Amino acid sequence: RAGKEGANPVSLYTSNMNLDELKRFELLRDLPGAIERNEFFLLYQPKVNAWTGEITGAEALMRWEHPTWGVVSPLDFIPLAEESNLFIRLTDYLIEEVFRYLATLPKKVPISLNVSPKYLYHEQLLHTFESASERYGVSLHWIEIEVAETSQLDEPHHIVNIFSDLRALGIQLALDDFGKGYSSLAYLQQFQVNTIKIDRIFGDGVSENNQARAIIHSLVVLAKEFGLEVVVEGIEQMNDLLLLRQLDCKIIQGYLFSPPVRGEDFQEMMRCGTLVPDSIDDHETSEN
Ligand code: C2E
Ligand code: MG
Ligand code: MG
Ligand code: MG
């Protein structure tokens, strides 16, 4: 991180912390006050019809604008938040922000939000969704919750019950990063979800990988049997899109159509309603 090191005395380094440790240390230190300081924001990544490019929804993805580390990835701060109860406040913020945003959309689409499995044990969970829905006058039908199947959903009874309560409210449910964990199929049998999001490890490069192709094909067949929607994540290449069409994958999410973008930009995309696949080389620059 050029330009940053100069601001802090080198002594922090030589005091035997490497850059990763220093970052982790500072993020952990700064996390508790960051919500009040308004340092979090959401980006929205379109989900797109693989054939028509029509925008069918979006996933909200959190970012932390840290005063010295710049835009921090959720992969860096979500695990830190989960070490304490801060993930509850962060998820509360996420829910509030998504409803606030949905209320501003003239033409709504379903918005997905990522929820740590831990939050599924939070006793205010249903109330938080209902209250936001009432206050913003936005139906819970516009909300989809993505739960990563890689994370241990260790009390199946509780999860089955809470999923059923959420469904009763009209909320859609998705198993995220599907196929990456070891108990995907068991989860599919236990939890009645609406959607599986096939992990990027299968989608990315699928046109050049016969195993990935076989796996996606099987998952599409399986999903059909279960009456589930399929979303394939992480599609960057035109060739992969063409192959996924052949495999009858209907919904795609990936840089090929769009990286995660600011709310204003997603609204602008919604004005047109469709996106054109576009293999671009440098996506990092377009994100922030
Ligand atoms: P995820 O839910 O699987 O989200 C998809 C991730 O893949 C996002 O990373 C997205 O930017 C990235 N992605 C999308 N298309 C492409 C592509 O074509 N190529 C590549 N290389 N990547 C692509 P992001 O935004 O860094 O989020 C990472 C993870 O952090 C998410 O994975 C999710 O598990 C978690 N996360 C993000 N926001 C939240 C949040 O608000 N709460 C919680 N609990 N977790 C969150
Ligand atoms: Mg997700
Ligand atoms: Mg995922
Ligand atoms: Mg992921």
UniProtKB/TrEMBL annotation:
Residues 24-274 form the EAL domain. It comes from the Bacteria. This is EAL domain-containing protein. The lineage of its organism: Bacteria, Bacillati, Bacillota, Bacilli, Bacillales. The chain holds residues 403 to 690 of 807 of the full protein.
